[in-house]
Each structure stands twice: as structure tokens, then as C-alpha cells.
Design goal:
By secondary structure, the chain is α+β, with helices and mostly antiparallel strands. It has helices at 2-24, 28-41; strands at 47-51, 58-63, 69-73, 80-82. It has one domain. It is built from two helices and four strands. It has a four-stranded antiparallel beta sheet with strand order 1-2-3-4, covered by helices on one side. The longest helix has 23 residues, at 2-24.
Length: 83
């Protein structure tokens, strides 16, 4: 029982650390990418377009069967990723 409590406490501490790190330590563009991924997760279908959370331009995205998401903003040097 004590071991389970320790594992649970460690998992909660790690989750809290990850949330704070993502919010405070990552560059702004990374936060914008996370916002875009959250918006895309709520979208139906395998591809689409959302407003870019960084510049408000058009961000086109596509989702693969394995869950990987590709996204690119139409604005030069703005958000682009493949994961």
C-alpha cells in the first residue's frame, strides 16, 4: 500500500511539473503549437483549417490514422510541425 501511495504521489508530482514547465519554460511558439493541437483535437475529420493561435493566419492541418498530426500556418516563419 505504501509503495502504491509513493508511485501515485510521484506521478502527480511529475504531471504537475510537466504542466508548469510547458506553461512557464517553453518558448511562446511552443505554447501556440499546443493551443493549435488542442483546437485540432476538437475538430472532426482527417484534415482542416483553423485560425493560427500565433498570428491569426490560416493554419492547415491533417491527421494520420496513427494519430500523428501535421500542421502549417500560411504565414512565413510561423507555426509548422509534424508529429
Amino acid at each position: 500500500r505504501l509503495q502504491r501511495l509513493r508511485r501515485q504521489a510521484a506521478a502527480e508530482a511529475l504531471e504537475t511539473f510537466a504542466e508548469v514547465y510547458c506553461r512557464e519554460a517553453l518558448p511562446e511558439s511552443r505554447n501556440a503549437a499546443l493551443e493549435a493541437l488542442r483546437a485540432i483535437r476538437a475538430e472532426p475529420g482527417d484534415e482542416g483549417e483553423i485560425p493560427c493561435p500565433d498570428c491569426a493566419g490560416r493554419l492547415r492541418w491533417s491527421r494520420a490514422e496513427n494519430g500523428h498530426v501535421w500542421g502549417a500556418c500560411e504565414t512565413a516563419n510561423c507555426l509548422r510541425w509534424m508529429m
